[in-house]
Design brief:
Helix content: under 10%
Strand content: 35-45%
Radius of gyration: 54 Å
Number of strands: 21
Shape: elongated
Order of helices and strands: HHEEEEEEEEEEEEEEEEEEEEE
């Protein structure tokens, strides 16, 4: 009995299909008409028009192209051949009016050499303390103050911004940073060092050897003369054995007795006494971990010049002064009743101009012997060449 059930269902379906006139396609109607029956008398498929509406009130069946393959062949189910179903192509839906379209984005191309600026693999690692301290020389005592620490990333950012991570002016700074490679700069006055540090993430104390020392300068005039500190200054240049002109200025206008912190090495020191021609040079070597003291000797003297009518008389105001060497090289020009100047040891010609008259006299400078130089109105010059007005 169970095997006859499919045959009974197939016979029942065949009987239903044969009841439909052969002039009508299976499961389809003409596009504009009803189901072949009376409009008012229950037409339609199998007389069900009263339930679903008459043929004129509803559209004809539509067969989806994708569902056509699912229909069984009439011969397979024991039904007589029938007309094929009408096939309609899919309807193209119109575009919605006024719907904005996404703009086209033109992205610039990245250069082939651009590095990948991804997250650092050490970013999520636990930070540890990097402790630092500095000594002037190997095995020397710790530097207690005057230090400037700057810690930089070993890989600079791609945007060109500063790679400075941390800085401190403590004698023993502690930097909490993740493991990685860093560039450390330590400044100590005009001394400094750059060092690479590979931090493994274990709390350690790194000792930095600055290899630096100090330089304290002073000068004497003549044998033991002490010049006024306000008139004494020093310039310090780095040593360059290959190019005398290419020396770099390390420090300028350094006052006497001041300790200048420098990297160990040789330097050229230039001593200025006054602002004229009293200049002395010396080469000095700075030792690491030590303060090097140097005293330079100035062969010069401080002179005070005045124009008088007689020895010991009152200085005449509004006097213009010109000082030249014995060979005629200009040393200094000034205006005033009293003119004070420091001159190096040697022979000079002093000229004074007042009321369109020029007075002059030769004068010798002896190192360490400061003096007042008087020019008398009786020392009338034969020409005015000293002031550049003669023929």
């Amino acid at each position: 009995m169970r095997r006859t059930a499919p045959c009974l269902a197939a016979a029942l379906l065949a009987a239903v299909l044969t009841a439909v006139p052969a002039t009508h396609p299976a499961f389809a109607q003409p596009a504009g008409g009803g189901g072949g029956g009376d409009r008012g008398g229950g037409g339609g498929f199998l007389g069900l028009g009263d339930i679903f509406g008459s043929g004129s009130d509803r559209p004809g069946p539509y067969v989806s192209p994708s569902a056509r393959e699912l229909l069984p062949d009439a011969g397979d189910v024991g039904a007589p051949p029938s007309s094929p179903l009408r096939h309609f192509e899919p309807i193209a839906l119109p575009k919605l009016p006024g719907k904005p379209l996404a703009p086209t984005i033109d992205l610039p191309g990245l250069p082939a050499y651009a590095p990948t600026n991804g997250p650092d693999k050490n970013f999520l690692q636990r930070r540890q303390t990097l402790s630092l301290r500095a000594v002037l020389s190997e095995g020397g005592a710790q530097v207690p103050n005057g230090l400037v620490w700057r810690l930089f990333s070993a890989v600079p950012p791609i945007d060109g911004s500063s790679s400075l991570i941390a800085s401190s002016q403590s004698a023993t700074p502690d930097f909490d940073v993740p493991p990685g490679t860093y560039i450390l700069h330590v400044g100590f006055g005009r001394a400094g060092i750059v060092k690479r540090i590979d931090f493994a993430g274990v709390k350690i104390q790194e000792t930095v050897v600055l290899d630096a020392g100090g330089l304290k300068l002073n000068a004497v005039v003549g044998d033991d003369g002490k010049p006024a500190a306000s008139r004494l200054s020093f310039d310090i240049y780095s040593e360059d054995e290959n190019d005398e002109v290419g020396r770099k200025l390390v420090a300028s206008d350094v006052p006497p007795e001041k300790v200048v912190r420098l990297n160990a090495g040789s330097y050229q020191v230039v001593s200025h006494y006054g602002s004229a021609n009293a200049v002395v040079r010396a080469d000095i070597r700075v030792e690491a971990g030590k303060i090097t003291e140097a005293t330079l000797t100035q062969r010069a003297a401080l002179l005070t010049m005045k124009l008088v009518r007689e020895h010991g008389g009152e200085a005449i105001a509004d006097t213009a002064w010109t000082i030249t060497t014995a060979s005629g090289d200009l040393v200094r020009q000034s205006v005033g009743a009293f003119t004070t100047i420091v001159l190096a040891e040697g022979d000079y010609v002093i000229a004074a101009k007042n009321s369109e008259k020029i007075y002059q006299r030769p004068f010798s400078v002896e190192a360490g012997h400061d003096a007042d130089v008087e020019v008398l109105t009786s020392d009338l010059a034969a020409t005015s060449d000293a002031f550049g007005t003669g023929d």
